[in-house]
Amino acid sequence: MSAPIDTAGDADLLDQQVHAGSLVAASQWTLIWHKFSRHRLAMVALVVVVLIYLVAAFAEFLAPYDPGKFDPRYTFAPPQQIHLFLTDDEGTRFAPHVLGFKSQVDPKSFRRLFQPDPEKVIPIGFFVEGQPYKFWGIWEANRHFLGPVDKADPFFLIGGDRLGRDLLSRTIHGTRISMSIGLVGVTLSLIIGLILGGISGYRGGLIDRVIQRVIEFIRSVPTIPLWLGLAAAMPKDWPPLQIYFAILIILSLIGWTEIARVVRGRFLSLRREDFVIAARLDGVSEFRLIMRHMMPSLYSHIIAAITLAIPNMILAETALSFLGLGLQPPIVSWGVLLQDAQNLRAITQAPWLFVPGICVVVAVLALNFLGDGVRDAADPYAK
Length: 383
Hints:
The protein has helices spanning 7-24, 28-37, 40-57, 59-62, 167-203, 205-220, 223-232, 240-270, 274-281, 286-294, 299-322, 334-338, 344-349, 355-377; strands spanning 83-88, 91-105, 112-135, 139-148. It has 383 residues and is of the alpha+beta class. The chain has two domains: 76-158, no CATH class; 171-377, Orthogonal Bundle (MetI-like fold), CATH 1.10.3720. The protein has a four-stranded antiparallel β-sheet. It is elongated.
């Protein structure tokens, strides 16, 4: 009696062969994406990073309040829990809400104490009217993604700070500053690193030695004292926006060395390749040789270097602002928000002030995992 034919196995084998055949003729970017998509942790990190940057892009709409709005009645107000169902005389129904506060001042410590008030029900909803704002500084609007139906009611999902400001709104707005510093700072570092690293690797000789000695000098200087010295050199009377751009320039002047070394190494290996030698013998100009023949092979490595460098930029800004030498109020960044968590009271009585620190950890881990996935996928032919 003949053995049964495994048609399912043959179909799977045929699909694998067709898929393998399609990959043989695929472009480098298709191969990179195919390998990257199989890195599950990197895919999850990609989703997290995209969500973080979406929060940064739509900060005004997502934040319930303006980051500068304060109310002394709710100093260090604790987080309010969202309740989905409301039970009253009409029965139990679906009605998202939070409970208001009952507050009193401790006669001994003069500290305001808060307790949930079951009699004060604050309905919440989506796309509610609230404080007016200018979206991206262009369009005027007053709709917020989530907030109290009555904008006069208190709403502190993750608590309030020492001035009675909503920490959630300030953390959302801080996402824009902290994440943009990482992205813009790395972009400036990338430009400097590509130019100097490319010149160093392509030209070689004396130019290469001079650039490498400059890189070694910058990397030999202790990082934190260098940051402190450059940040302390900024005039105290500068406006916040000017300080913001100064911090970007400082971080870029320090962070370009690693990218320059990566680019130099790749150029040193590529300039001996057959296609580069053939293009040079064919009379191709140096600019066209670099931009059309050598640079495309660096794109995947550049993306990996960027995703691994952004976390360092974010941590650098956070450290400088936490020490009081970086961004200063009224600018809101994660580092600025963590300044309120430096005292003992924050540790013992208001632990929610550490939420911006959790955001830093999540963003840095997600970017590192994303960078690891891109770095592994940069060589799609490696096993």
